[in-house]
Automatic annotation (TrEMBL):
It comes from Imhoffiella purpurea. This is Glutamate--cysteine ligase. One of its GO terms (biological process) is modified amino acid biosynthetic process. GO terms for molecular function: glutamate-cysteine ligase activity. Gene3D superfamilies: 3.30.590.20.
């Protein structure tokens, strides 16, 4: 198996009158911050795609909504935060350690600009993202023909990991089957990650504003197949032609909220691995059950249907990992078993912390708080 991790962070002020203040498209321009982050690792790594205009290069890059001039030339990026991505490596633990190393380097680079990292599943202080100025003719035409722009009014406010798994020996049919399986079970497992109980500067009515808003607009799973043999899968909304040879067979899970600890990231990666390997999980889907996602977003494991579904999935994923003799992976899932026992989510932890400190984000990098 191979694994790569993409992880989105908010940016916050380290000092000044409001340490911990969220910096985004309302108060931080691309032109202001981009030069501070240009000296970065991985710029020449051929295993990573760079996007059409090349601003997504290296092991970190600014994330947000790309805006263009009337003739299609890049104009600016409406900054939502920064993203780390690791190169694909032979196992989950190496991917996590690679990410932590990159995060350490990114933290040092940001500190020179007076900025730090923060983690949350949804921007806790903004109530909306508007196109300012309105989309021009070229932008409207471009977005109409590219699914990647779907729901940009939501994705510019939301944060989460993309966990990428692949098995080089698997054929296209098996990869597509695993993607359909993850898509079907996603609404039951996303509460393990919930980290967005705030919205527009207030406590929200549920546990994951991200999941509630995102389900109707963004995919939970993507799978990348060999362009030469892509035609049979073209009708499947989960399938995409690979852009690089090393991307063939990549299964990308995108539905988790931002994860607030290394232990939780490790557990969720291995949960996905176990689901892909489990032969006794029968459900498959290509569509999105928006109602089920929203039930989960509001109540988490307090909803008995979500809780029992998650319990079954966790048990069968654990057994699949045990059968594959992956004892460290099995041990990692204890983090999720504890959540099930307490009917709790990371959002409950953030709400408790908010009551003590008033902060709506997890300040610092993965598993560590700062400020």
């Amino acid at each position: 198996m191979r694994c790569g991790i993409e992880f989105e962070y908010l940016l916050v002020d380290l000092a000044g009158p409001e340490p911990g203040r969220v910096r985004d498209f309302t108060n931080l321009s691309f032109e202001e911050i981009a030069p501070q982050l240009e000296d970065k690792p991985g710029r020449d790594d051929p295993s990573l795609a760079t996007g059409d205009i090349g601003i997504r290069s290296g092991y970190w890059y600014l994330e947000g909504d790309e805006r263009a001039h009337e003739d299609g030339r890049f104009r600016t990026l409406m900054v939502k935060g920064v993203e780390i991505r690791t190169p694909p490596v032979p196992d989950i633990e190496r991917a996590i350690q690679s990410m932590l190393s990159i995060e350490w380097q990114l933290t040092a680079a940001l500190a020179k600009a007076g900025l730090g990292l923060a983690i949350a599943g949804f921007n806790p202080v903004r109530d909306r993202y508007d196109f300012d100025p309105p989309l021009n003719t070229w932008e409207r035409a471009e977005r109409a023909g590219d699914r990647g722009y779907d729901g940009s009014h939501v994705s510019t406010l939301s944060y989460g990991p993309d966990i990428n798994l692949s098995w080089p020996g698997w054929n296209a049919a098996r990869c597509l089957d695993a993607a359909r399986k993850l898509n079907a079970y996603a609404p039951y497992i996303v509460p393990f990650s919930f980290s967005s109980p705030f919205f527009a500067g207030r406590v929200w009515e549920g546990l994951s504003r991200r999941t509630y808003a995102r389900a109707a607009h963004r995919p939970a799973v993507k799978v990348y197949l060999d362009p030469e043999t892509f035609a049979p899968a073209e009708a499947c909304g989960l399938a995409h032609p690979a852009r690089l040879s090393g991307e063939v067979g990549r299964i990308e899970f995108k539905a988790f909220d931002a994860l607030i600890s290394v232990e939780l990231l490790r557990a969720c990666c291995h949960l996905l691995e176990g689901i892909c390997l489990a032969s006794d999980l029968a459900m498959r889907s290509e569509g999105t059950d928006i109602g089920l996602y929203r039930r989960a977003a509001l109540s988490g494991f307090a909803d008995s249907g979500i809780r029992e579904g998650a319990r079954e999935i966790l048990a069968k994923a654990t057994q699949a990992l045990r059968t594959a003799e992956k004892s460290p992976a099995v041990a990692a899932l204890a983090e999720l078993e504890e959540q099930m026992t307490r009917e709790s989510t990371p959002a409950h932890r953030l709400l408790e912390r908010y009551g003590r400190t008033g902060s709506m984000v997890w300040l610092g990098g993965l598993g560590k708080e700062s400020i």
